[in-house]
Design goal:
Length: 140
């Protein structure tokens, strides 16, 4: 019996949407006020969905302690109270929340073993959210 488990996490970070390969005018036209040189912050809410067989003895897909510890170490501690533009992964990649979703998904999927990472969804504001479920999943 397979089941899904979704858990929410939060961190705060700042970013500036700016593509170094575009002119200042193109950046402003593309990103508007999000291109402001001083950046701005968000309280991101990250939903991580994992799946697996429900263990017959524990009754669980995976232990929340394992998931929480892993996400805290790999994601929350990594990004909380940072400027995303300063992170290695965003030196050549614009730190939009779409790209942040993909980075977080890849980082979790690469090394979380107790269950399969199915999806990462990020709420950037009350009005928008983004999700990524891995390139391979799109073909299903
Ligand atoms: Ni923003």
């Amino acid at each position: 019996m397979k089941a899904h488990l979704t858990r929410r996490y939060r961190f705060s970070a700042s970013h500036r949407l700016h593509n170094q390969s575009m002119s200042p005018e193109e950046n402003l036209a593309t990103y508007g006020k999000c291109n402001n040189p001083y950046g701005h912050g968000h309280n991101y809410i990250v939903e991580v969905t994992v799946s697996g067989h429900v263990d017959s003895s524990t009754g669980m897909v995976c232990n929340l302690v394992d998931l929480d510890g892993f996400v805290k170490e790999q994601i929350v501690d990594r990004y909380d109270h940072t400027n995303l533009n300063m992170m290695d992964e965003f030196q050549k990649l614009v730190p939009t929340t779409e790209n942040l979703c993909v980075e977080i998904f890849d980082r979790l999927q690469k090394s979380f073993r107790p269950a399969k990472v199915e999806r990462v969804r990020i709420e950037e504001t009350m009005m928008n959210s983004f999700e990524y479920a891995g390139g391979r999943e799109l073909a299903h």
